[in-house]
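call fold target=Peptidase M14 domain-containing protein
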Amino acid sequence: MRQTRVQEMECELPSTKWRTLWLAIVLHLLYGVQQTQCNILPVKPTHHNNTALHQVLEALAATYPNITRLYSIGKSYQGKGLWVLEITKNPGMHTPGKPEFKYVANMHGNEVVGREMLLLLADYLCSNYGRNERVTKLVDTTRIHLLPSMNPDGWESSKEGDCSSVRGRFNANGVDLNRNFPDPYDGQRNELQPETKAVMNWIHQEPFVLSANLHGGTLVVNYPFDNLPVELKRSGTRVYYSSPDDDIFVTIAKVYSLAHPTMHKGHPQCPIQRRERFPDGITNGAAWYPISGGMQDYNYYKTNCFEITLELGCCKYPPALYIMPYWYANREALIKYIELVHTTGIRGFVVDEKGRPIDGARIVIENRAKKIKTYKDGDYWRLLVPGNYTIRVAKRRYKNSKKKVTVVPDVPTVVNFTLVRRRPKNFNRRRPAAMTSNPAEAVQLEKPASNVSFHSVVTHRDKLQLAAKSPKKSASIARNPSIAASFICLVLVAVLK
């Protein structure tokens, strides 16, 4: 018996060794990962290359899995991932009633301060969750998306200490990404880049309420509109081209600039433009200098999202020793700006008579051309400054609903709507077709004009319509035989008389 037991133990020994070996390997891997994360976190005040940036995001996602999710919205021209870190309680999908916010940085590859600010912000929010009441509340109630680098290819070409050149500004295909979005006045001047397409798909997929785009080169907050119609461009003078929500943009821009220790003073004193002055540290984009194809204008024209551009300092790629001073100067402003989604304007749900959410209902503010739409859960957010408003909600096959609302400062105003379905007999009723001799024109006339001019100086040709290409001009008389023939007949009759 004793000999048999010894033999059994000898047979068990190899398997025990293997189990011990596997356990050691697993522990080593886990310890190694932990050590790697400890070496990466907290985020160091240094310039992270593209590999290190991704490692930081991965470490944050692994360390704080309950409040983070790392995902990619696409790839750059050279195939580098465009990584976004989502920070919120229960990440992964939109929660009805929870506003969506985003920060985008490093759109110009050589403007790197924002890139590092977002890494530090992500670390700050995650490490203070559950410890700091303000941060915890913000993360619990907001779905925050951080894209530290929209142009990783351009970053590869940039150089530390280069404060003013354009080296690394463009993507690997030589395109300025902040001139690449469809523009209402200039159409699409160059082919959409993969980075631009990725961001466009992203902002149409998520119901973002508020956003900021982090740049560098001076110290100011820039807000829409960035571009001008042709009539104003020809004048050659600087024009303050305001949006219908100019009061909102001025307000939210000041929230950031006033929270910054020096930005609100309006004297950047950058070496290249020492005489630049920005009252309160903010500026209308077109009044500063007009650009075509900017991202902030596209957000405003085509989505529910209000976006501004933050110029964080005179030097585009400062030495690493300046990163922490930049962080301390911008930390409070970055957080206060996110908090605006909870304190500015109105929010609520649009449902039908049975309480089911209505997707795509239009929220119209009387005397304001900008419309927003409800998301698939029926929820909506509409930024407004304090005041009295008449709000109308419209959806096809439903009766319009209208309410008068008073918006007060620093408190979210909840306004819910219940839409009543129209009677079925109205569904198939059509408008009488306009009389025309040209069938093609008849089709166009039946289509309602959904776009309106946002500015009194804009002519009828300048509508708020964004497309990949410039809208074609209407056919001339020479191209329409029926109209041309009618015109010739009229001329002959006049001559004969």
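return ok
Residues 2-40 form the longest helix (39 residues). Residues 1-14, 26-36, 432-497 have pLDDT under 50 and may be disordered.
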